[in-house]
Specification:
The complex is a heterodimer of chains A (292) and B (234).
Chain A: H1 2-35, H2 42-59, H3 64-87, H4 95-116, E1 122-123, E2 133-135, E3 138-140, H5 142-163, H6 166-176, H7 178-183, H8 188-214, E4 216-217, H9 221-235, H10 241-262, H11 264-281
Antiparallel strand pairs in A: 1-4, 2-3
Helix pairs in contact in A: 1-5, 1-6, 1-8, 1-9, 1-10, 2-3, 2-4, 2-8, 2-9, 3-4, 3-8, 5-6, 5-8, 6-8, 9-10, 10-11
Chain B: E1 2-11, E2 14-24, E3 29-33, H1 40-47, E4 55-60, E5 63-64, H2 70-76, E6 78-81, H3 93-100, H4 109-118, H5 120-124, H6 135-147, E7 153-157, H7 165-180, E8 184-188, H8 192-198, E9 201-206, E10 209-214, H9 221-230
Parallel strand pairs in B: 3-8, 3-9, 6-7, 7-8
Antiparallel strand pairs in B: 1-2, 1-4, 4-5, 9-10
The chains are: A mainly alpha (292), B alpha/beta (234).
Chain lengths: 292, 234
């Protein structure tokens, strides 16, 4: 009975964690889809957004809603900077050059954020500071509830944007075949830049939820966001948007269970081991299309 | 309608087009024949704006269009049905057609109906993912997608490639119908026999240059085919 309760509690925690991972993976996947490039500066742009909001909260009297907007705005700004400087010039070919450039921007953005806020840890206004909700043997953090609700809302909004608008058709056409999209009259560079901005906004939303959920930010947020986004995307099958959501939830559940049953040291190890197995075995849902 | 002059397009240092000049008359079907590697697809991609020429000019309706972006070329009224069709495989048939009308802000229902009546099979499968269609159906979809932009000049790059003979006949019937309805067609074809039946004018291309041009009647068909595939004696 105790084991069952643990399993259920871990599953609840895993879903809350996985909701943020799903958002991170959606943003990462959208960029990967339109550019067919891994954007290593994805997380650092999110970190820049979270740091901008932290800075704002220290200098001005702000409420959470304003801070959320600051995170979104600053992440979109940093994301657009990354797109303009490292991906737009290398659009035709040169995948390696773009990836190395995104690594350089990772360092650059992190340094800028740490010059402004050099300490190792800053408090971030918390989503909620009361006691967790308890239901029998289970407890559920209110902030986790907010995170899940927000993540579901953002997923539904993105789905609507991509599947029921003219812009969505253009984005998906670019993801399917950029050359054919151009021949159909779609402005591929502009569509790519806008999709990048949307992806940055989704990443920024995830960054805000993580910072406000934890009540703190550290410089690790950048690398952490890139790694979690990439890992969840790979678990979900490399490049599929519904897969990104599934991969994020799966990663959250794996981490929550591994954390409880195997201890915090083995938590990430289990996730990476699973990824290694997936990449080695390549189950049919893994999208292994090559670059054409 | 379109005049190409001394067009040079290079991949790095290798010139795939070495000064191509040709003309496509309004309301005609013009055909470009030639062996593999002659530069036919490069020419189509350069006209459509996907490749940038290093020299030369492309004039369409008396305006210089060389070097413009692909979406600007579509706006001018040129649409390319690319080699190997390149439909959007994960999108539905209907969404593929909507993507083709991306430039147009007005209602597209009338155009959709026209295309569905021309290709009834696309209507039956309008909700199906394009990647699951047969080769012939994908070709119909690629043509339909190009027509959604209401082009004045339709470029087609090897529409019969890899299709069964009956489907090839259907494609050429469609080309003749489009022509009758007022669309100018510029066609690259390997299937010279079929192409010469519908075209009013043809060009032969070899090694990046136009080596011969004429009307289908001006030279015996087997002589054209011999030159197109074996190259002319020099």
């Amino acid at each position: 009975m105790a084991l069952l309760a643990d399993l259920l509690q871990n599953t609840l925690d895993g879903i809350a964690l996985g909701a943020t991972y799903a958002l991170l993976a959606l943003g990462f996947t959208l960029i990967f889809g339109v550019l067919r490039r891994a954007n290593l500066a994805y997380g650092p742009a999110i970190m820049f957004g979270a740091y901008a909001a932290t800075w704002a909260s220290q200098h001005f009297h702000t409420n959470l809603f304003v801070l959320a907007l600051v995170v979104l705005g600053a992440t979109i700004l940093a994301g657009t900077y990354v797109e303009r400087t490292c991906f737009a010039p290398h659009r035709a070919g040169a995948a390696a050059a773009a990836m190395v450039a995104s690594f350089a921007l990772w360092m650059q953005i992190e340094e800028i954020a740490m010059l402004a806020l050099p300490k190792h840890l800053y408090p971030f206004p918390a989503l909620y500071e009361g006691a967790p909700l308890t239901l029998g043997p289970f407890s559920f953090r209110i902030e986790a509830l907010v995170m899940v609700t927000a993540a579901v809302a953002i997923c539904l909004l993105l789905r609507r944007l991509l599947y029921s608008t003219r812009f969505g058709i253009a984005v998906r056409a670019v993801i399917d075949d950029p050359r054919a999209a151009a021949l159909a009259g779609i402005n591929v560079p502009r569509t790519t830049a806008l999709a990048f901005a949307v992806a940055s906004a989704i990443g920024g939303a995830a960054g805000f939820l993580v910072a406000a959920g934890d009540g703190q930010v550290t410089p690790m947020l950048g690398m952490w966001s890139t790694l979690k986004g990439m890992l969840a995307m790979m678990l979900g099958g490399l490049g599929s948007l519904p897969g990104a959501v599934a991969g994020g939830l799966a990663l959250g559940l794996i981490e929550a269970h591994a954390h409880w049953f195997l201890g915090p040291q083995l938590r990430d190890f289990v996730a990476y081991l699973l990824l290694f197995a997936l990449l080695a075995l390549r189950p049919p849902w893994m999208n292994t299309r090559s670059e054409s | 309608m379109m005049t190409v002059r001394d067009l040079v397009t290079a991949y790095g240092k290798i010139e795939a087009l070495k000064g191509v000049s040709l003309e496509v008359a309004a309301n005609s079907i013009t055909c470009l024949l030639g062996p593999n590697g002659a530069g036919k697809t490069t020419l189509m991609m350069t006209i459509a704006g996907v490749l940038k020429p290093t020299r030369g000019s492309i004039r369409f309706l008396d305006k210089e269009i060389s070097g413009e972006a692909p979406d600007a070329i579509v706006r001018r009224g040129i649409a390319l049905v690319p080699e190997n069709r390149l439909v959007f495989p994960s999108m539905s048939v209907l969404e593929n057609l909507q993507a083709g009308a991306y430039q147009r802000k007005q209602s597209i229902n009338e155009d959709l109906e026209k295309i569905f009546s021309r290709f009834p099979r696309l209507k039956e499968r309008s909700a199906q993912q394009a990647g699951t269609l047969s080769g012939g159906e994908q070709q119909m979809l690629a043509v339909g997608r190009a027509l959604m932009s209401r082009p004045r000049l339709l470029l087609m790059d090897e529409p019969s490639l890899g299709l069964a003979p009956l489907v090839v006949e259907e494609i050429f019937r469609t080309i003749a119908e489009l022509h009758r309805d007022g669309t100018t067609v510029f066609l690259v074809e390997q299937n010279a026999h079929m192409a010469l039946q519908v075209a009013q004018h043809f060009f032969l291309m070899e090694q990046g240059r136009i080596s011969f041009s004429g009307n289908p009647g001006s030279l015996a068909e087997d002589e054209i085919i011999r030159r197109a595939y074996l190259g002319s004696a020099r």
